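Lab meeting, action items carried over

1. Structure of the two-component assembly. Owner: GW. Status: complete.
Input record:
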Amino acid sequence: QQPVQSPQAVILREGEDAVINCSSSKALYSVHWYRQKHGEAPVFLMILLKGGEQKGHEKISASFNEKKQQSSLYLTASQLSYSGTYFCGTAINNNDMRFGAGTRLTVKP
Amino acid sequence: DTAVSQTPKYLVTQMGNDKSIKCEQNLGHDTMYWYKQDSKKFLKIMFSYNNKELIINETVPNRFSPKSPDKAHLNLHINSLELGDSAVYFCASTATGEISGNTIYFGEGSWLTVV
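Predicted assembly:
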């Protein structure tokens, strides 16, 4: 069963912040975040493995609440290059990676 | 070198035809996937294989038949193509058992258009 992502779409001005949420009804082995630009393959951003783990990637960070099976992706001081569709991927084991419906992020000047 | 390579990148074909998409990874990974991304951008899992063995078959019609001759290759054959099969098909691979987690690497995608 695929995870649920929210919101479906976000429009920001440069410099604004955004949060994208991801939740699953199943106990998770790991949570992954990917960004896809139009016409390209999804690109890996980060993986979270443990409950309460947080990671950062430049101005993009994420958290994973293992108890709630929820993860959030935080984009701070957004740049034009952040535009794209963000997917969370959830794995219940090593061979089963499923993706949410995606969140389309548009950053405007 | 491309880590996960798919061929062809673009494919336009008529309804009823049979076509194949090939995928190869040179990362030494043991798990490979096929995902379908439709016009709504939803990335839907189709199949996963681990060391040539089918692990997941996500209620995909029998017209779709994956084949993994070895753990570095996972091909997708589609019979009797239908209009609804038009989508981007992504191959992906990962290494299970890594302490750092099983990051998935995607191929560039194969754009299939059925007319």
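2. GW to write a short summary for the group page. Key points so far: The longest strand of chain B covers residues 43-50. The two ends of chain B are 34 Å apart (CA to CA).
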